[in-house]
What does this fold into?
Amino acid sequence: MPRLSSSIQVLVVGAGPTGLFLASELRRYGVHVRIIDRRQAPTTQSRATDLQPRSLEILEQAGALSGIRPGGRPLHAINIYSDARPIARMDFRGLDTHYNHMFASSQCNTELGLREHLKALGGRVERGVELVAIEQHERASTCTLQSHDGHIEVLRCEYVVGCDGARSTTRKLLGIPFPGATYDEHYLLADARVTWDLNRDELHGFIVRSGSLLVLALPGHDEYRLFADIAPSDRREPCREAFQEILDERAPMPATVHEVGWASRFRQHHRLVPRYRVGRCFLAGDSAHIHSIIPGQGLNLGIQDAYNLGWKLGLVCRGQARAALLASYEAERRPLALLTLRTTDIFHKTFTVRNRLGQRLRDVLLPPVGGAPWVHGRLVDLCAELSHNYRRSPVVSRLRARIFKGLQAGERAPDVCLTTDDGSTTRLFAHFGVFAHTLLVFLGGGLGSLNIDRKKVEQLAASLPQIGGHVVAPVELRVVVAGPEGLPAGLDRWVQIDDRRGAIHRRYGAKRGGLCLIRPDGYIGFLGPLEAPPLLDYLAGRACLVSAE
Ligand SMILES: Cc1cc2nc3c(=O)[nH]c(=O)nc-3n(C[C@H](O)[C@H](O)[C@H](O)COP(=O)(O)OP(=O)(O)OC[C@H]3O[C@@H](n4cnc5c(N)ncnc54)[C@H](O)[C@@H]3O)c2cc1C
It folds into this structure.
């Protein structure tokens, strides 16, 4: 029996996008993490191509976007045609985010950017190393790792996260089932060079009686991702000739396929684990959920699992949060995976329906229903993952704060574009703390016209140092100043955000003064009145942070 080699805080199993991003997040928190992958080289498969707006925001906040951006391109809308007639359009340009578009980036490009990001943080993937056994104990797990040369290592890990994909070994070793089903259709997918007259800034779906074709432009000037469903009895392989036939049949304009690069024939599944955790071991990404790739959510869900678990494990490993915080990972992420499974299933069935009556109903109902502004807004928000929220989470405040109109604890903290006097622009997100909770102190619509109690502001100013020092995790304070009058004594020594034009107050619905605590992952943990006690209760209570006393 090999002896225990060493002891680490977190073992990340799998270096796909989920594992790479999780490992870099943990490195940012200074956690002693190792990341292994059974493959000896990174994948060359193009696979996932869509990064959604919320993922772009997150990758930017984490400092990981700059390495991905040069290898991709924005996509502003999705158009669906049935028999060459437009039946649906989802336009991302109206979204309330700096990234009001999707982003086409092959999975190799995304992974390359994430690997570089991990490297810059001092991490590296151990390749040709596979997890083969886990034994759980009260304070740690013992993991057996096998290298491709047969070397066996036994490692003590405080926590293990299986990011090892749809066929996850971690999930199997933990005995977690993966219930769900496989869709009937088969799929042909390819990155190909095509000549045709197509708007390259948008994604297109062409449906005809016999099947559908999804197309999105990749960075090369005539390169496209092609994705077509075929009947199970159709034996075609994803070669140039097959795609030429499919384009001739389904695209409403003449098209010539010159060359097919990476290509695949595959089937799709929809499956979700009943639990994301057993003891000290967690699942994230495709190891926990898989679903139809229409309309490109899978990789995004994995990246957001990693972002959610990353700060929680980071704070727990640093001794700044109680282990109870980790229970909120499944409570927050599983409902969103379930929602994604359901919505992608609806998209999938709408797109691939084969019977004549279903197709007629879709073609008649979709234009008026999908085109209604409210439905369109909801669909785009959902697809962009901006409306994903943790309102029912056990670790967000339950306080009913009507001070902030239209905003609730558990929602994504909105970004706001700020224009300074010299005309330059900056964004509210740039003021959010790194690794820290950020407390936005809203004073209301300008101190001169202040309809808040001045005494309250002074009392709060006196207790602000106490808020920062109440828990051992860092809480960064920002006073959002709307009026030109300056701050009352006591508040003027805190970092101020100039909101003279009132844009932040308006976006946060903060006509009166109030407190908004934003978690390190950019979701609102607490909204409350302009007074310290409810926030202090929240910080050391529901927020699960370690109290400084
Ligand atoms: C053809 C195709 C097209 C897709 N298109 C899209 C799209 O447009 N948009 C989208 O969002 N998603 C898309 N997806 C889904 C997307 O590719 C996945 O959601 C994404 O790859 C999941 O990332 P992951 O890191 O969770 O898992 P993976 O990328 O599967 O990575 C898992 C890693 O774990 C490693 N591993 C496995 N077992 C072990 C072990 N025992 N020990 C060590 N390492 C191990 C593997 O080698 C692998 O590198 C597509 C998928 C496919 C197949």
Remarks:
- The chain has a mean pLDDT of 91.
- Residues 13-19, 36-39, 47-50, 107, 130-131, 163-165, 169, 189, 264, 266, 285-286, 293, 296-300, 302 surround flavin-adenine dinucleotide (CB under 6 Å).
